[in-house]
Amino acid sequence: MKNVRMTIWIVVTVLLTLVGQGVGVDFSDGGIHNIDYSLNNSVSVDYLAPDMHTTVNLLTGGLVHDLAPHHNSQVTMSGGTVIGNLQAWDYSHVTLSGGYVGGVLDAYGQVEITMSSGTVSSSLRVFGDSKVTMSGGSVGESFDVSNNSLVTMSGGSVGGFLGVGDISQMTMSGGTIGLSINVSAGATLIICGYNFAIDGNPVGLGTYSRSPVSSRLTGTLANGDFINNEFRGTITLIPEPATLLLLVIGSIILKKRIN
Fold it and tell me: What is the percentage of the chain residues whose pLDDT exceeds 90?
């Protein structure tokens, strides 16, 4: 009887813990689950049974409270709504080609996020060796990159601040940032484009630092979007691909003439 009571106590404790962590419904069977209906709960993927490589597709008409993929699972959003947060953990993969996230989109621990469309109402936060490729879509507030993460941005929009820190690297060839850009010491921000100017003064390609006082960077990004933002920290300006190709061709022709 004592052992039975102990077992019941352990089970109840685990269940209460899971409820407290907001597990709700957990898909952990290695299958593919399409959510095109209203699920009045939070959803986790491969939390209770790690590394099952389960896939959850949130489709048009689908609605969940929070969504949390774990341990090499896959979440794709082509429509639907996450009322709260989408928090990805531990080598999981998230693809956004539509849909709406009402809170934050977080990546913790070698997560891969690909965003080509859709809306994140609050912030996009990237931690712990994670990787983000953003070619479209919108982030309503800030975009924070830290902890040795890697970001490529070729389109889309961020309504607030962009922050790059903690030896992370970001390459920006398109997209728009609504407010200022802050690059912490040790981090790298590479901006690809042409016709750059700092505080109204045209500048060539290269590395520029501004701290603690910020400066304003203007120019045209590689995809044709305009950049017009105050920045603090160190940025590196490189040519867009067509200009780079012309420079390479020019150097080859010059070398042949010299020889």
Answer: 82
Beta strands 55-58 and 32-35, pairing class: parallel
Show contacts of 171-177: CB within 8 Å, 24+ apart: 172/221, 173/221, 173/222, 173/223, 173/240, 174/135, 174/221, 174/222, 174/223, 174/224, 174/225, 175/134, 175/221, 175/223, 175/225, 176/225, 176/226, 176/227, 177/143, 177/227, 177/229
d(CA 27, CA 55) in angstroms, rounded, equals 8
Amino acid found at 87: Q
Helix H segments across the chain?
2-20, 241-258
58-116 pLDDT, tens digit per residue, is 999 999 999 999 999 999 999 999 999 999 999 999 999 999 999 999 999 999 999 99
- Residue 183 has which token pair? 């690059």
Confidence band of 23 (pLDDT split at 50, 70, 90):
low
Rounded percentage of the chain residues whose pLDDT exceeds 70: 84
Integer CA distances (angstroms), 144 to 152, 158, 209, in order: 13, 11, 20
Confidence of residue 5 (pLDDT cuts 50, 70, 90): very low
Q: Which two tokens stand for residue 157?
A: 């929009």
Distance of CA 169 to the CA centre of its chain: 12
Say what the pTM is.
Answer: 0.85
Q: For residues 52 and 108, what is the distance between their CA atoms, to the nearest angstrom?
A: 19
**Exposed/middle/buried for 4, CB within 10 Å: 0-12, 13-18, 19+?**
exposed
Spatial separation of the C-alpha atoms in residues 151 and 145, rounded to whole Å: 8
